[in-house]
Amino acid sequence: MKLLVKELNQRGHEVLVLVPDSSLLIHSSESFKTEVYPVSFTKADLDGRFEQLTEGLFLKPPQMTDIFLNVQRLVNFTSLQVEGCESLLNNQTLMSRLRVGGFDLVLTDPFLPCGSILAHLLSIPAVYFLRELPCGLDTKANQCPSPPSYVPAAFSGNTNIMTFPQRVKNMLMSGVESYVCRIIYSNFDDLVSRHLEEKMTYKELISYGAIWLHRYDFTFEWPKPIMPNMAFIGGINCAKKAPLPAEIKEFVDGSGDDGFIVFTLGSMVSNMPEETAKQFFEAFRQLPQRVLWRYTGVPPKDAPKNVKLMKWLPQNDLLAHPKAKVFITHGGTHGIYESICNAVPMLMFPLFGDQSDNVNRLVAHGVAERLGIYDVTTEKLLTALKNIIRDKSYKEKIVKMSEIHLDRPVQPLELAVFWTEFVMRHKGASHLRVAAHELNWIQYHCLDVIGFLLMILFTVLWVTLKCCMFCFRKCCRRESAKKKKQ
Amino acid sequence: MKLLVKELNQRGHEVLVLVPDSSLLIHSSESFKTEVYPVSFTKADLDGRFEQLTEGLFLKPPQMTDIFLNVQRLVNFTSLQVEGCESLLNNQTLMSRLRVGGFDLVLTDPFLPCGSILAHLLSIPAVYFLRELPCGLDTKANQCPSPPSYVPAAFSGNTNIMTFPQRVKNMLMSGVESYVCRIIYSNFDDLVSRHLEEKMTYKELISYGAIWLHRYDFTFEWPKPIMPNMAFIGGINCAKKAPLPAEIKEFVDGSGDDGFIVFTLGSMVSNMPEETAKQFFEAFRQLPQRVLWRYTGVPPKDAPKNVKLMKWLPQNDLLAHPKAKVFITHGGTHGIYESICNAVPMLMFPLFGDQSDNVNRLVAHGVAERLGIYDVTTEKLLTALKNIIRDKSYKEKIVKMSEIHLDRPVQPLELAVFWTEFVMRHKGASHLRVAAHELNWIQYHCLDVIGFLLMILFTVLWVTLKCCMFCFRKCCRRESAKKKKQ
User: Fold this and answer.
1) Reported pTM
2) Structural domains of chain A ordered from first start
3) With contacts defined as CB-CB under 8 Å, which chain B residues touch A149?
4) A85, A94, A284, B255 — which has fewest CB within 10 A?
C-alpha cells in the first residue's frame, strides 16, 4: 500500500496515516504525514501474538484440524488490533480533528476493521486494498458469486477442475468457511455494533466499500466471476525497483553460468531450527549455484562459501537479475508476484494462512515445486532444486506466465491510483454497486419466488385433480345407476 | 466495429472482411481488404426481412405477446444469414484460401453465427464484439452468473430494484427467455452441427470466445456480475469525430440561446406515417428551438422554418455541439452512448428489440423521458420537450453520468485494440477461461453433491432412529417382564 500512497503523494494528494504507538510495520515516511495514537498494548504484546501465528511450523506437518487452531490464533492477533481501534475511536481529541479534516476517502485493508469504521463515521467513501479476506468475507460482502463447483475453497487443496469427491470436499469446506467466518469476525461485529449501528455486522459495513483493489491476477489465481467494482492490481509490488547494493551485485554477477538462488521464508519466520537450517546448508554446499539467504539466526561456523547470509534481501531486484535461477519461498503473494514478474521458477515451503493454496496453484501451473519445511532433508532439497534448474519446462512456463501477467492495458500501480482518484473525484463509485446489497438471503436466491410459484403450481394441480375426481365419481355413479336400472 | 478495424489497420494489422454479395451494411474501405462471396438471396430479400422487423410499429402499442411475433421475425431474418453463411462454408475455393491465409484471429459479432464457425474451422481464436445477444445467450455461454433477483430480464420492464411481484415476473420472464433461446438459435445449432461437430450447440461454440468486447457501461446498464474475459467498451462509437459540414454548422450555430434539437429514429425506420410526422411538425413549429431531423419521407409543403430535414445526420458531432438541448431517439445503444458522451438529455420513442429496456434504464436514471410512437400527439411532444429543456435536473443528471462514463482508465477504442492484440500475441486468453465450461448443469449447481450429502444425512438419521427404536423396545420389554415378575 506504501507504493500507492507514495504515488498519490507525488500526484499532489495529502495523505495522513493513523498509526498505533505499538505498530508492527508502519514507519514514518516523506510521502505521508503520520498521526500516532496511544494504545493499551505494547509492541512486545503484538509481537508475541504475531509469533503465535507461526508456532510449531517446523515440527509437524499441517493437519486439516489446524484450521481451528489457526483461527484461534488469528482471533488472538486481531483482538489486539480491535483493542487498538477502540483506543482510536475513543480518542475524542483525535477523532474531532479527523472529523473536520476534510478528508476525501479512507484507504484501508479490510483485514483489520478500523479503516472501514472510520470511513463510515466520517461519512466518506472507502477504497479497499487487499489480497482477499479470511474465509472469503470479501467475496460475500461484495455479493460476488463464487460457485463451489469450480472455485476451490480455501485449504481444500483443490484446483479449479475437481472430481466428484473433490467437489464434495469443496462443498463441505465452504460450509466450514461460513462457520469459521462467524468466529473470526465476531469481535469485529461487536466493535461495529458498539460504534456504528446496533445491528450492523462487519460484513455489512465493508459492503459499502466503493472500490476493491485486489492484489489478484488470473495468471496465478483460477479465473472466477468478478464484480464491476473490483480492480485487479496483483503484482503492484513489482513496481518497486532499485539498483542492487554493490556487495550483492558483485556476489550475483560473479555467479557464472550456473547463476544463483534467492532464499527467504518471509518476515514472519524469525528463527529456523538449527537442524532444519543444517539440511539447507548441506544441500547448498553441493550445488554449483550461489545462494542468497535471508537468515536471521546465528550463522554456523562452516557455512558453505557459495552461500551469502543476510538479514534483509532486495528480493524483487535480485529476482530481476538475469542470473536468478530459483526462488525458494514460503509462498506469500508478495514474493510470488515478484517471481512471476521476473519469470523465476520457485521451490516452495508453504508455512501458514493462504500460502498452501498459493503453492498448490503454482505447482498446478507447472512453475514451482513444493516441499514441507517440517521434514525437509538435504536429499529432497537437492532433487527438487536440480529438477527445477535442469527441466526447462519450469522456466518456459513461468516465462509465458510472466509475459501474460505483465501484458495489461494499465499497469497495476497506475490502475490503483486511477480508481482511488476516481472515488475522490466522484465521491464514491455508486454506479458500480449492485442492487443485491438490498436483498436478504432468501430474496437473493429467489427462494420466496420459487416457493410462491410452487404453491400456485400445487394449488392448480390439486384443484385440477379434485375436479377430475369429482367428475369421475359423478360419471361412475351415473354408470352404476344405469346398470342398476338395467 | 469499423472503428476498431480502422485502428487495427493503422497499427499495422492486415484485416480481411468477408462480405456476402447481398449485404446490408458493409461497404469497401481503405482500412481493410474485402472478399465478396456469392449468396443465394438478393439484397431485396434481405431488405424485406429487415423491414419486417419494424412492421406495424406506428400502429399499436407493443404487447407482451409481441415477443413471440418478434422472435419469429428475427428467426426469419437470421435464417437468411444462415443461408449466406452456408454459401461461404461451402465455397471450397474461398475456404481453402482462408485456410492457408495465416490469420491470427476472427473478429466477429456472435449475433450472427458465421464468424465463430470460421474461427473453429480455422483453429484460431475469436474475439467477440457485441452489445449482448438475444435472450442473454452471451451470459449463458460465457458462464456469467446473472441472478434474476436483481438482474432485470429482457422485456420485463423491471429495474435492478424490484418488488415481490416484479421479482415473480422477472423469474417467469427468465423462464420464457430460456424457451425463446431454443427457438432463436435452433437454425444456428443446425448449422454448427452440420459444419463442426455432430452434437455441438451454438452456445457451446461461442463459449470458446477468447475475449468478449461488450458495448456496455455501468453508468447506463445496471451493475451485475461479470467475468474476467469481458471488457467493456460502451461508448466506443463516440471516438468517431469530425467537424460539422458548413451548412449544418451555420444552422446550429444560429440557433441562439434556445439551442437545437436532434431528431432521428435510426436507420431501421425508413418511412414514418404522414399523420405521425404531422404531430412532430406541429410540435416543432411551436418551439423556439431549431430542429435537425433525419427524415426520409416526402417533406410537407408547409414544414416549419426552424426544422431542417436531412437524409443523414452527423449525429455524434451534432450532439457534441454546446447548443444541443435534446436528442429525440428510438433508444438504440449507438445513439444513447453518443448522448451520454456529450451529456444531452433524451426524449425516447423505443421501437423494438432491446430499445424499450434501454429507455427504461435511462428514464429510471432521470436523464430521459419516454413516449410511444404509436399514439404521439403534438401536445404530448410539447409537454415532454419543454419539461426536459426547462427542468434542469435532466441536464444535471446526464452531465454527471457523462463525467463518470468518460472517466475510465483506458478509453474504449484503446481497450478494444489492446484485447484484440493481446489475443493475437498470446494466441487466445485461456488464463481467463473459467473451469465452469467443463461442468454440466447439475455439476455446476452442485446438485449431485447436495443429493449425495442429503443421502448420507438421511442414512445416518435413519440408522440412528432404528437404533434408538431398537433400544427403546428392548428397554420396554425388560420393563414389562419385570412388572410381570413382580
Assistant:
1) 0.94
2) 1-237+411-438 (3.40.50.2000), 246-406 (3.40.50.2000)
3) 436, 439, 443-446, 449
4) A94
